[in-house]
Design brief:
The complex is a heterodimer. Chain A is α+β, with helices and mostly antiparallel strands. Helices cover about 55% and strands about 15% of the residues of chain B. Chain B is built from 30 helices and 18 strands. In chain B, the strands form 4 sheets. Chain B has a 6-stranded mixed β-sheet with strand order 10-14-15-13-12-11. In chain B, β4 and β5 form a beta hairpin. In chain B, α12 packs antiparallel against α13, α12 packs antiparallel against α15 and α14 crosses α18. Chain B is elongated, with a radius of gyration of 35 Å. Classes of the chains: A alpha+beta, B alpha+beta.
Chain lengths: ~180, ~850
């Protein structure tokens, strides 16, 4: 642990780079947040066309005003159980940078969207070096009065998605049953 | 010291040195340094640079010829004076030969301050000019009106030269120039047309321009080899002439006077500067020319006239210095006309511009004739000068008062020598009233400007738009179409009984469809340029392979989607190479077979039922069935158990598309490795096209490519499996049917099969292939679709066929290429997405799955 901590930049430095406005949302009991500049829009759940040969958390594609974008179930992405859609369930459309450097839009299914919060430098702590998202997908923790926000690096979350997709389809002789 | 003072001291030093006085180099160097400092203070960057380069030159001067330096200093002075008058950078081109680098070798990189947009435009126009040129060169062999063809070539080269001059691409400019002179030599002396040389030049320039497009700072390789070739060619021309080109000048006594031609001889003392002078003069001419062309195209900015004026002025000065009276005469007359334009703010007619351009051409001819005695006829030059004079001549007394020869002995342009310019400005006032009645430019002297004019008129009707913007438009229109159909299919709308509403909706629908069509047509381009490239290819390959081939092009104006046009280039190249190298026989063989020696290759494009057909037909030996079969047996490419006899011709011919298949006895550097046809089929299938072969032994072979008009839309069969809909490209579908249980069987090694019209096909389920949870399992409850891809046939089980429709292909934006069996998505009328099935990928996956 000590070496891991040594690799982490000092807390205040992490904080100052990360401070800003975040959109917070809920997955199961946890509260997560994405930097507001990454968020394009929030839409209700629409019918999703499933894609074959993709991991279960890739729920499929939707039509966003004439543009086809993939939709990821963040619950499944983070190893949680799949939940039935409720009226609160939303798709957060985010701008992500693909592994090839191109910007693209993707949808993330979340249980509910809470609010836009201002997270200050002093409230941010570096991410623990463990956890489901891995790959440095957690930027840090935002400690607010009574709650803890998990600040997500959505680029990393989505980048990992694509890698898995490619690996899978490379081997996809046997069709995947979702 | 202020700028004016420095200039004066510089000017006087130079004048003194020029008039034979002792050259005070220290003073010149000091003045130049002062100039540089002053220029830096005034932030005239180019001037400072030029002054710096010149002073460095002075400092390292080792006692050689100083005239070049003095000439440069004069130019620097003029530029500096210009900076004073109209601000820096206004006359940058003046400095072009003076800037650092001109003392060493030309860099070839685009001048650093040129902006990207300019380079981009240059690259575009240059590439199209090269394509034109190539076509013209190839046409030469076939055309009858050689003069017209050469004139067209000259126009094309001319434009290119001018444009590259603007970007200071010395290499291209030089080559263009040499091409022009080569053409002249060729026509003058009716030599064999140097097609290969021209094509080589075209290639060199294209190569460089393409590299330039990728990286604006690319340095061009030295065109020395090509220049040497040109030289060799022109020298072969010179053999027919009495005496050689420049060598004659070395012995002025040897020059014989032929009555009507202008003889230009340079005094021995100037011989060593002659080359510099020629290069510079050519540069100035090119500059003047581009200035005139820009003047026309730039909304008549007087600054361009100034540029042209200065160029002629400089030429005049230097020619006077070298006693080249005829050049001085022409330059002076042209300058006078230009001066009239610039001082009167008068807008000259196109004929005037032509005349100026023709003057440049004439001077060039004169320059080239220096020492070789084959200058233009004296009468021609006189006539031209008179024409120029006519522009300014209407006020007779002014024109008469201005004795043309007076200007002749003037010293090269220097700021001190401004008096004549003032005089010219006076008689320029005469120009205004008469420009309109100028006689049309002489036909032979002014081909370039004439062409330029027509080209410019054409250019007004077209604009260049980036493909990205175009695609964005097409995308948006696509969305509109979807949105419109969503409105139309809205269930609530059906309950509304308003006639006006339904009329309006119908109207919107019509407009939407029209708009979609219009948007699609924007992406359409003709096959012309692609076909023309093929003409070149045929020629090259034929020469290499020792064949005689005539290429016939049909339907070059057929339009199809830009992306398709781009993509068919490679397959076409392969097929044409094949046809020329393997298809058409060698001349002796053809003669033996009773055919004309020259083989005919026909490249044909036409529409047929919503797709484009491109045919490549040769009248060669045809594909030899037995040879193909033998090769296939040798490589065991035939499915086990098939008797070659039973195979249909098409099946045999299709074998040649297999990778590594080649019946060529020897591998040439053109073809024969058996890679080509495999590539062809892959490329065409990637375009959702098909290729067929027809061939008769001894009669020739025809390749038929069927291609979609556009890649953005496909014809698809919409099917349902469970709750999902999928689109299967109609092209891959042979038929569909509801199977009878009696026709279904289960084979141990292949699994489920069905008996369809005499063949037994494997049955795959879309449900299993895509891992769906709903959908029919019992084959007889669904519909079987017979698919054909890569020669493999299979049946696909779906729940139901919903209909056939055209869909716009959309990317899934999820690196979807990696999703096997899916080639994209289509937004259906209800706004939901249906995946488009990639039949080849699907069958492959299914075969793999069945085998495991």
């Amino acid at each position: 642990m000590s070496t891991a901590l040594a690799q982490n930049p000092p807390a205040e430095k992490v904080g100052s780079a990360l401070a800003g406005k975040y959109l917070s949302f809920r997955l199961s009991k946890e509260e997560y947040a994405i930097h507001i500049l990454k968020v394009r829009e929030i839409i209700g759940v629409v019918l999703i066309t499933p894609l074959p040969h993709t991991p279960p958390y890739v729920r499929g594609v939707i039509n966003l005003r004439g543009k086809i974008i993939p939709v990821i179930d963040l619950r499944l992405r983070f190893g949680m159980e799949r939940a039935e859609s409720t009226p609160e369930t939303c798709i957060v459309v985010v701008d992500v940078e693909r592994s090839d450097g191109q910007r693209t839009q993707m949808g993330c299914i979340v249980d509910s969207v809470s609010e836009v919060l201002n997270v200050e430098t002093s409230q941010i702590e570096p991410a623990p070096r463990c956890g489901q998202a891995g790959n440095g997908a957690i930027l840090g923790l935002g400690k607010l009065k009574e709650r803890v926000l998990i600040l997500l690096d959505i680029d990393k979350v989505m980048a990992a998605v694509q890698v898995v997709e490619q690996e899978r389809s490379g081997l996809a002789a046997t069709p995947h049953v979702s | 010291m202020v700028l004016a003072q420095i200039l004066e001291s510089l000017g006087s030093s130079v004048d003194r040195a020029r008039s034979g006085g002792s050259a005070d180099f220290a003073a010149v160097a000091a003045a130049l340094e002062a100039l540089r400092n002053e220029a830096q203070k005034l932030s005239y960057a180019s001037l400072a640079q030029a002054a710096d380069a010149a002073s460095a030159f002075v400092r390292t001067w080792n006692g050689g010829d100083a005239r070049k330096l003095f000439h440069h200093v004069a130019q620097i002075c003029e530029y500096a004076a210009n900076c004073e008058r109209s601000g820096p950078e206004a006359a940058r081109t003046l400095l072009a030969p003076v800037l650092p680098g001109s003392y060493g070798s030309a860099t070839g990189a685009v001048a650093a301050d040129t902006d990207d947009e300019m380079v981009r435009l240059f690259v575009l126009s240059c590439l199209s000019a090269l394509a034109d040129l190539e076509a013209q060169v190839l046409e030469f062999d076939h055309g009858t009106d050689h003069e017209e063809t050469v004139a067209a070539m000259r126009r094309t080269i001319h434009t290119m030269k001018g444009e590259s001059g603007v970007l200071s691409l010395a290499g291209i400019q030089k080559l263009c120039h040499e091409m022009e002179s080569t053409l002249d030599v060729c026509m003058d002396k009716s030599l064999k047309f140097p097609a290969d040389l021209m094509l080589e030049l075209v290639d060199w320039i294209r190569d460089h321009v393409e590299r330039l497009a990728a990286d604006h700072a690319t340095k061009e390789p030295s065109p020395a080899v090509l220049l040497a070739k040109i030289e060799a060619y022109t020298r072969s021309a010179a053999v027919h002439e009495p005496g050689e080109r420049l060598e004659v000048a070395a012995t002025p006594a040897g020059v014989k006077v032929v009555a009507p031609r202008i003889q230009l001889v340079v005094n021995e003392e100037y011989l060593d500067t002659l080359n510099d002078f020629l290069n510079e003069a050519k540069q100035h001419l090119a500059d003047a020319e581009s200035a005139m062309l820009e003047y026309e195209s730039s909304g008549r900015d007087i600054e361009h006239i100034n540029r042209a004026f200065r160029a002629f002025h400089t030429i005049k000065g230097v020619s006077g210095f070298m006693n080249l009276a005829p050049i001085v005469k022409v330059a002076h007359a042209a300058e006078t006309v230009l001066d009239g334009v610039r001082s009167e703010r008068h807008v000259p007619s196109a004929a005037d511009v032509d005349l100026i351009l023709a003057s440049g051409d004439l001077i060039k001819t004169l320059l080239e004739s220096i020492g070789n005695g084959s200058g233009p006829y004296v009468a021609d030059v006189e006539a031209h000068v008179q024409k120029l004079a006519a522009v300014t001549a209407s006020k007779a007394e002014l024109a008469a008062a201005k004795p043309t020869p007076v200007a002749v002995p003037t010293v090269p342009a220097s700021p001190v020598e401004k008096a004549p310019a003032v005089a010219e400005q006076k008689d320029a006032s005469a120009a205004e009233t008469t420009v309109a009645v100028v006689p049309p430019a002489r036909k032979d002297a002014a081909p370039a400007p004439v062409a330029r004019n027509t080209k410019q008129q054409g250019a007004d009707n077209t604009i260049k738009v980036s493909t990205q913007r175009l695609d964005a438009l097409v995308d948006m229109v696509g969305e509109l179409v979807i949105a419109q159909s969503m409105v139309l299919q809205d269930t609530q709308l059906a309950t509304v009984a308003s006639q006006a509403l339904s009329r309006n909706i119908a109207q919107v629908g019509k407009i939407t469809r029209d708009l979609q069509e219009a948007a699609m047509s924007l992406r359409m381009v003709t096959l012309k340029s692609t076909f023309q490239k093929m003409a070149r290819l045929v020629r090259d390959v034929a020469v290499k392979a020792g064949k005689k081939v005539d290429l016939h092009l049909e339907g070059e104006d057929t339009e199809l989607d830009r992306t398709v046009v781009d993509e068919i280039h490679d397959p076409l190249v392969h097929m044409i190479r094949n046809s020329v190298d393997h298809g058409i026989e060698a001349p002796d063989k053809r003669r033996a077979a009773g055919k004309p020696e020259v083989g005919v290759l026909t490249l044909r494009a036409y529409h047929q039922g919503g797709s484009i057909l491109i045919e490549i037909a040769d009248d060669g030996g045809g594909i030899r069935r037995d040879k193909v079969v033998a090769k296939a047996v040798e490589r065991s490419l035939l499915p086990p158990g098939t008797e070659p006899k039973d195979l249909k011709d098409t099946e045999i011919f299709n074998l040649i598309f297999l990778p590594g298949f080649s019946t060529a006895e020897k591998v040439t550097d053109i073809s024969g490795r058996g890679v080509g046809m495999d590539v062809v089929r892959r490329n065409i299938e990637a375009l959702r096209g098909k290729i067929e072969i027809e061939s008769g032994e001894g009669r020739g072979t025809t390749f038929k490519m069927r291609l979609p008009l556009t890649l953005a839309i496909i014809d698809g069969m919409v099917v349902r499996v469970g709750a999902e809909r999928y689109v299967i490209p109609t092209l891959a579908i042979e038929q569909s049917f509801r199977p009878d249980r009696r026709d279904l069987h289960y084979l141990q090694d292949t699994g489920e099969v069905v008996h369809v019209r005499g063949s037994v096909l494997p049955v795959y389920r879309l449900k299993t292939a895509f891992g769906l949870t709903s959908g029919v399992d019992d084959v007889v409850e669904g519909i079987l679709i017979v698919l054909e891809v890569d020669g493999t046939r299979a049946c696909l089980l779906v729940d139901e066929i919903l209909g056939q429709q055209q869909v716009v292909i959309k990317s899934l934006n999820a690196e979807d290429r990696s999703i096997r069996g899916v080639s994209g998505g289509a937004i259906m009328g209800d706004g939901r997405i249906a995946l488009i099935v990639d039949v080849a990928g699907l069958v492959e996956t299914a075969v793999l799955a069945a085998n495991t």
